[in-house]
Amino acid sequence: MKRFALTLVAATLASSAFAEYPEKPVTLVVPFAAGGPTDKVARDLAEALRKPLGGQAIVIENVGGAGGTLGATKVAKAAPDGYTLLLHHIGMATSPALYRTLQYKTLEDFEYLGLVNEVPMTLIGKTTLPAANYAELSKWLEANKGKINLANAGLGSASHLCGLLFQQSLKIDMTTVPYKGTAPAMTDLLGGQVDIMCDQTTNTTSQIESGKVKAFAVTTTKRLTTPALGKLPTLDESGLKGFNVSIWHGLYAPKGTPKPVLDKINAALKLALKDPEFDKREEALGAVIINDARVNPADHKKFVEAEINKWGPVIKAAGQYAD
């Protein structure tokens, strides 16, 4: 009985020690450059998290490089106190296959806090392409094997992954043109230096609305409902059965972060995902807020493990690795 009482007291003291968390600004690491799609999501999320975390500031720190692995490494090695968090996209699941060496273990060195959103992707092309829809584009791609330039934002980027799967699904090899980020890739697509690109709606919606690119299809299994993208067919219905790529974002903390802190962050995340202003901003970008079991840490981790198993074979088949 005495031992039970001491254990209860210890647990109570440990819980109370974190009752005031957060007592200072929280750093949210974005493993990509400012202005990119993950950065946009992070800044919207930071604003939505502020209120449920007692009004404390959420400071964005952009740690770009090596396909997001530098920023992830920084968080994996940070003090496990809840004051350094990571917002990462699908690269969390693809890096184990893309990089021969990583400074962290994806499923072991982080605390999983919950998924935030899923961002559909769009297949777009330069305006001078002689195709008005996906059926015509498919014929053009078949007729121009060996001459097609496919842009992406760099190894491990969302556009790179979508491009890999697109080529494998069509069984057509294209000349992959990697850039150091989404902005320069889009600039060259707008200028006609490259032919096509598969990228997130967060990057493509405004270009589609303005008519600066041709839009051919979306990568989800269901059509989107946004005004700019609602009329686009899915690649699945266009003939690439089973094609389904969404770029999700999740929230993480260093391994060993105290459970009371993790619980508080997860509770704040769930409230942030219901924030009307956050929802409005994400919807405008074509993103879908997560409202299923994956907002829970255990289900978030199971999902990432499944994604590792999904993308590993795709990446290995392409033979594209980084040291």
TrEMBL record:
Q: Which UniProt keywords apply?
A: Signal
| Matches recorded under InterPro entries | BUG, Bug_dom1
Query: Do the record's keywords include Iron-sulfur?
Result: no
User: Which positions make up the signal peptide?
Assistant: 1-19
Which Pfam families did the record assign? TctC
What the record says about family reads: Belongs to the UPF0065 (bug) family.
Q: Which PANTHER family match?
A: BLR1237 PROTEIN (PTHR42928:SF5), TRICARBOXYLATE-BINDING PROTEIN (PTHR42928)
Return the protein name: Tripartite tricarboxylate transporter substrate-binding protein
